[in-house]
Amino acid sequence: MPPVFSPPHTIGVAVSTLPRPGALAGAQGADECAGLRWLDREVIRALLSQPKSRTGTGGSPQFVCYAASEHNVCMLAGVDKEEYRETIRPRLMSRGLLEVRPYYGQALTDLAVSTYSPG
Q1: What is the H or E stretch that residue 65 is in?
Q2: Is residue 8 part of a domain?
Q3: What global pTM score does this model have?
């Protein structure tokens, strides 16, 4: 039989046992550390699947960044282009997770790679 709920017993709960304010954000679709929504994380995940390299000395490819064109980012992440332009890109750029690089397009910053890379 489950224990009986007694409200007076829970009044003296220590502050350290209460959940952190950001811990409940997962239920709202937001990331705990940066306030990212699931579509923001889909964009990051899509960009992490697009490594870009250039030919270095000796002809061997050298990694440059994780990047894709705006159109490809929207297609890979499954987001609307207008939503990406108006909400997702500004949110990621304001948090220092995304930058626009000449020739490469939408690129993840080192902070985004170190925070969200699966390895």
Answers
A1: strand 61-68
A2: no
A3: 0.70
